[in-house]
Amino acid sequence: MTRYDRFDSPLGPVIAIAGDEGLLHVDFVGATYERAIAPDWIHDPGAPAIAACREQLREYFAGTRTGFDLPLAPRGSEFQHRVWREIARVPYGETISYAELAKRAGAPGQARAAGAATGRNPLGVVVPCHRIVGSDGSLTGYAGGLERKRGLLELEGALQGSLV
């Protein structure tokens, strides 16, 4: 059974979608790959994964949480999963380039492919793809919008040396 909820954040409304295994999708409403709510989904703010996500995002935006401990169940290819696992390892307040991400995911020289997988990350903020930047430090490619990417990196104190 798929459950969902929408809730507010300082950077705009968020939608969280969960299946029986955990969170399937967390992103800003209006993001490039926002999932449309299917008619058979249940609006359930109290679903455990969704309630935990809402609380942990609240703590993150309040500056009291630097990582997430949530049940995740994203759907994607094996390569996408490798990229998403490496994104999840980038520490709070730090950034890496798409080229470095590709290298860490076992695909050196495939920054564009790593960028495409990053763009399809269904768990925005929770799997912190906002921490992936251009090789020159520029803020590029964020499905939630570059203003939100900038806002997330400012919250984490990670903009030093980045080209805005």
Q: Helices and strands: which structural class?
A: alpha/beta
Which architecture of the largest domain does the CATH hierarchy give at level 2? Orthogonal Bundle
Q: Biggest β-sheet: count, sense, barrel?
A: 4 strands, mixed
Q: Oligomeric state of the chains?
A: single chain
Uncertain spans, ≥5 residues at pLDDT below 50? none
CATH superfamily of the largest domain, by name, is Winged helix-like DNA-binding domain superfamily/Winged helix DNA-binding domain
Residues in β-strands, percent: 5-15%
Strand line-up in the sheet with most strands: 3-2-1-4
Number of strands: 6
**Can you tell me the overall shape?**
globular
CATH topology of the largest domain: Arc Repressor Mutant, subunit A
The count of domains is 2
Order of H and E elements: EEEEHHEHHEH
Explain this structure to me?
By secondary structure, the protein is α/β, with parallel strands linked by helices. The protein has 2 domains: 3-61, Double Stranded RNA Binding Domain, CATH 3.30.160; 78-156, Winged helix-like DNA-binding domain superfamily/Winged helix DNA-binding domain (Arc Repressor Mutant, subunit A), CATH 1.10.10.10. Helix content is 32%, strand content 15%. It contains 5 helices and 6 strands. The chain has helices at residues 48-61, 78-88, 98-104, 111-119, 146-156, and strands spanning 3-7, 14-19, 22-28, 42-43, 96-97, 132-133. It starts with a strand and ends in an 8-residue tail after the last helix. The mean pLDDT is 94.
